[in-house]
Amino acid sequence: MSLSLLLLISGIILFAAYKIYGSFVYKRFGLDDSRKAPSHLLRDGVDYEPSKPIVVLGHHFASIAGAGPIVGPIIAVTFGWVPAVIWILVGGIFFGAVHDLGSMAASLRTEGKSIGIIIKNQIGAKGKQLFVIFSFSTLILVIGVFSDIIAKTFVANPGVASASILFIFLAVAFGYVNRWVGNKTTSFVLLTVVGVILMYFFVYLGTQLPFVLDYKIWILALLGYAFLASVTPVSLLLQPRDYLNSYLLYGMMIAAVAGVVVANPQIEMSTQVQASSESLGYVFPVLFVTIACGAISGFHSLVASGTTSKQLDKESDAKIVGFGGMLIESFLAIISVGAVVVLSRTEYMERLSGEGPVALFSTGLGGMISALGISETFAVGFVALTVSAFALTTLDTCTRLARFTLQEYFEDMPQPAAKVLATNRYLSTTVVVILSVLLLASGEFSTLWPIFGSANQLLAALALLTIAVWLIKKNIPATFVTIPMFFMFTVTLASLGLFAWKNYQEKGYVLAVIAALLFVLAISLIFLAFKSLKSEVKEPAKAL
Question: How many other CB atoms are there within 10 angstroms of residue 24's CB atom?
């Protein structure tokens, strides 16, 4: 079988799913443009800012993608490429896209608030407190880990650092000029063309002007940038940077598909399925935790309800941004699998352990892109730079999301200090950055990171639970949400149970306790959700 055929079939399936199932899901959520979006009702020029759907899609896609749909699928091929592809397609369409659009829809109907506030409204204050503490801790962990990854990347590849800095200045200039020209379509298109050309030029310029700094200085610089990205009006930095960066990823994907068509490589890896892996564990539940971005990822619910819902110009934009953005990511995950299935299984396993997933992806995809007549060295470097650029996107988005989460946790508390923390974005962002610095200084982020996969999928299960309760209370059939919800809870609880037991046996007591606590958290929120639904059913009887 040729890789071109795999990409063609996957692309057709995903496009058909968007047109058919996407329309069904969109109608079930009851979105319509007769209601004003929160971006208009609460417009403040900082967080709430109505924007063009293509701009919001760029921000959303750049934020949810990161390195997730590259690293996860490549590692998961350890179990076999066939189950990886099936889970990406089935998970992306029936799980992830429903999860992302549902999170966005529920947020649109809750003043653009995050999943934590939606949980409070639908399940109760205790549920909100548990979820917010959990999601905030997860975001701090992500900020710490990605700061470390990006700093090490910048030290090893100063050219990538230079290009990334140039991207930031370009984004600010783009944001200011876009505000000046207003909503004129012609001006925006011209501005986009100029911005994308400059961005690709900066890829080359970065290799010619390497910027060298020490690791610790990079950490401080990155967290300083994350602070600015969190408090600056979204239309001046975060949004234009993500929008322009999305063209890096679009360009990489288009070049990859074109390279595959020209080179027409064959799938060399066998279709054999491995039931277990010595390094990873059993295919169930590990496959469904390893491939998160690309199929379903709880982090998406934080982005969809945290930043994206505050930027949608109208409710109908949620379909292309939420459902469509997820399926584009699924196609990226298929391309990631394609980068390694042209190898034999033996060669894949050897190179995965020696090079790591990002390097394996870069060399594999770069080789295919070189079939277009581009230097293979440049192609590999371009792919690596694209991955690094999106890691930086994850960092700044997570900082803003952590700020939202912290503010929403304290917004109902009467104490003066809590009120200040809930309303002052500078103070709340400072708290986020300080906690991230403390985590990095302690070195515990590397110890805690292995549990992130399970924690992330628990986020997805809890978001689906919240969406299901929201729909049921509105008397809307929620089977299309509850089926993926039950599956994700099964996957998560099984994963956490195995993870806790494995670490207990290996005397990793801290991780074992955390896994057990997350298990209890999931059960507690399920109990609170059913209690909320039960009281909702009894309410009419009380009224009579």
Answer: 10
